[in-house]
Amino acid sequence: MAKCGGCGPGYKTPLDAMKGPREEIVYLPCIYRNTDILKPDYLATVDVDSKSPTYCEVIHRLPMPNLKDELHHSGWNTCSSCFDDSSKKRNRLILPSLISSRIYVVDVGTNPRAPSLHKTVEPTELFWKCGLANPHTSHCLGSGQIMISSMGDPSGNGKGGFILLDGETFEVVGNWELPGEAAPFGYDFWYQPRHNVMMSTEWGSPKALANGFNLEDVKAGHYGTSIHVWDWTTHKRIQSLDLGEEGAIPLEIRFLHDPAASEGFVGCALGGTVFHFFKTQKGNWEAEKVISVPSKKVEGWVLPEMPGLITDILISLDDRFLYFSNWLHGDIRQYDITDTRNPHLAGQVFLGGSIQNDSQVKVLEDKELDSQPPPCVIKGKRVPGSPQMLQLSLDGKRLYVTTSLYSAWDKQFYPDLIKEGSVMMQIDVDNVNGGLKLNEDFLVDFGKEPGGPVLAHELRYPGGDCSSDIWL
């Protein structure tokens, strides 16, 4: 922790965060919805301290009080955006439920290794006070409030609005956006106050994606293709950048961590592309495609062409490398983004996926690979599913990976994942010259959980990380 008289949570700068302590535990939601097991989702605490006797083990499980919530992403009650406020503590983890629309507030401060449930915000609070549902991304604000993006309205239609929670009581305050300003769809968001801007993305309407993916829903306009630009001060939507077919289903969005930066990246799942967005000299915003993962011509699969399906993306705290996962092809990539308009591939590793050389899928034409990759086996365990959620260590040297995307899509594309549960892996990162290598001594097998195989999703460190902290 950077030394500072009476400072609040987090770190003064992203580069200070890189010098923070090595991660010892991680939190991640574990999901039973769409499996054959009727049990509540839970928050798992995993020991990642290589010197610990319980290394690579789940050391605590906090079950939620309800069934079929679909825990998904998480955020903090406070982060580095409140670094100057010594009254703030990062002691609550915010856990929105994608399907039930509940928001759980978890006490991770009293006993970080054994969190407890602090409060439940019921869905009716979101419905009545905000007209919103299906909460997704949670970020704390410098004001002390918590903001959570929504994907829909209470009827399951697409609606990209934002829920404000009081940072002390966790009561629903109301909407962040002005009346009538909600976007057609919602998903992720990131704000950059120095440029008076927030950017948000689009997945699709909850009722279209609730039970699986259907290409007809894309053709019918139930999935998004735009990123939205918001005025941070007035809360008005001032621009919508339509990325077109190449930018279909823009999911995770990341500004560079440098709070003075006026640019970032968004990963587009169906398009298999990454777009670079930036502020122009005129003061408006534009986006350009800078990375494209070619689809592969295949047989033995649901469609004749298989996209990479870029799902999670991350930027290292020094803004040097961009990482993303191709959930269908099965690889994780590292790009050097020193020149943000011309990223170049620096590392790649295959960890499962749909084109393994012993699968029923035959690749007929591939613009990148000479042969189909072999299965990924760690400690005798064949990895089911494919790499999906990513979290990078503060120093940028270790990349943690889980394999579940969203239970309905897991069930559709990787039925073995439902039966066997997901895994958590660790990639050794060369953050000087570039390069990725699987750590073959690290494996957390969620197929061996006491309640039965479970789907593990997004990872968080107690002290904050490169996808939850925002600097002002």
TrEMBL record:
An example Gene Ontology biological process: protein transport
Subcellular location, record wording: Nucleus; Cytoplasm, Cytosol; Membrane
Signal peptide extent: none
Pathway(s) this gene product operates in, as recorded in its UniProt entry: Organosulfur degradation
Catalytic activity of the protein: methanethiol + O2 + H2O = hydrogen sulfide + formaldehyde + H2O2 + H(+)
Top EC group: oxidoreductase
Pfam families in alphabetical order: SBP56 (PF05694)
A cellular component annotation (GO) from this entry: cytosol
Main location: nucleus
InterPro entries for this protein: Se-bd (IPR008826)
Function per UniProt: Catalyzes the oxidation of methanethiol, an organosulfur compound known to be produced in substantial amounts by gut bacteria. Selenium-binding protein which may be involved in the sensing of reactive xenobiotics in the cytoplasm. May be involved in intra-Golgi protein transport.
Homology family: Belongs to the selenium-binding protein family.
The name this protein goes by in its record: Methanethiol oxidase
Native source species: Conger conger
